[in-house]
Design brief:
This protein is mainly β. It has one domain: 4-Layer Sandwich (Glutamine Phosphoribosylpyrophosphate, subunit 1, domain 1). The strands form three sheets. It has a six-stranded antiparallel beta sheet with strand order 11-10-1-2-12-13, covered by helices on one side. A hairpin with a 5-residue loop joins β1 and β2. The mean pLDDT is 97.
Length: 237
C-alpha cells in the first residue's frame, strides 16, 4: 500500500469529519494515537476536549448554546489496563465494557451500528491500542450504512500485529464534504508517524480546515513502560 502524506490528505479535504490515527513512532519506541473532531453546525463546533482520568471527554464550550448532546458529548478515549480505546462516539463505553467482559474488540461492537443521524448516517469509527511486554498491536473498525441505506449495516475490522516503526493508519467518518455527507470508503490509509509528539500535533492541527476544525487529541505511549504523554488542542479557548 502506498504511504500517503497525512498533511496532504487533510489539507485537501475540507471536511473529513472525525478522524482516528494509530501507529508506531519512527524510532519504534512509542505507540501513537490521535483523534480529531470537526463541525459544520454551531452545536458541533461548541465543544472542547477535556481530560478525564486516563482518557478524555467532549464538553460544551458554552453550555447555554448546547442544543442536542446526544451525538456530540461522549468519552472519545478510555483506558482499560494495557488497552487504549479511541472512538468517535459513546461506543467507547461499549468497547470498554465488552473488553472488560473478555469479549474481543469486534464482538464488543456487534451490538452497535452507524449513528442515527439521517440522511448522513455517520459511520462509527473505533480503534484500540494494545501495549504489553514491549509489544504493540492495534485494530480499527468502521460501522457504516450500506451506501446510505439504513436498513443494512456494513462492518469492517482491520487488525495490525507487531506494528511497524514509522507507520500508522488513518480512518475518518466522511469521504469528503457533501449533502448528504458520503461515508469513508476502503481500508484505513497508510501514513507516516514521526518521533516527535509536538511536531505531529502541530502537523495535524495546522492541516485541518480552519473553519471546521474543533479539537485534537494526541497521545504517545512508551511501549517499554506504558507511560504516556498527551496533547490537547481546542479551537475554543
Amino acid at each position: 500500500m502506498e504511504m500517503l502524506s497525512l498533511e496532504k490528505e487533510l489539507k485537501e479535504n475540507s471536511y473529513p469529519g472525525r478522524g482516528i490515527v494509530i501507529g508506531r513512532s519512527a524510532d519504534g519506541t512509542k505507540a501513537v494515537t490521535a483523534y480529531f473532531i470537526m463541525g459544520r453546525s454551531e452545536n458541533s463546533r461548541n465543544r472542547v476536549f477535556v481530560e478525564e482520568g486516563a482518557g478524555i471527554r467532549t464538553q460544551a464550550f458554552d453550555p447555554s448554546k448546547l442544543t442536542d448532546p446526544s451525538l456530540i458529548i461522549y468519552a472519545p478515549v478510555r483506558v482499560l489496563g494495557n488497552k487504549t480505546i479511541v472512538t468517535n462516539g459513546d461506543q467507547t463505553d461499549t468497547i470498554y465494557e465488552g473488553l472488560d467482559k473478555q469479549l474481543t474488540f469486534e464482538q464488543s461492537l456487534r451490538c452497535r451500528e452507524f449513528e442515527p443521524d439521517a440522511p448522513n448516517y455517520t459511520p462509527r469509527i473505533s480503534g484500540v491500542l494494545h501495549v504489553e511486554n514491549g509489544k504493540f498491536n492495534y485494530a480499527m473498525s468502521i460501522l457504516k450504512s450500506n451506501n446510505g441505506n439504513p436498513d443494512s449495516c456494513s462492518r469492517y475490522t482491520f487488525a495490525y500485529e507487531n506494528a511497524a516503526a514509522g507507520e500508522g493508519h488513518f480512518i475518518h467518518t466522511y469521504k469528503c464534504d457533501g449533502n448528504p455527507l458520503p461515508s469513508f470508503e476502503g481500508e484505513p490509509k497508510l501514513v507516516a508517524i514521526p518521533d516527535d509528539m509536538d511536531t505531529f500535533t502541530e502537523q495535524l492541527w495546522n492541516s485541518l480546515n480552519e473553519d471546521n476544525k474543533v479539537s485534537l487529541f494526541v497521545r504517545y505511549i512508551d511501549i517499554a513502560t506504558g507511560t504516556y504523554e498527551t496533547k490537547i488542542m481546542n479551537k475554543n479557548q
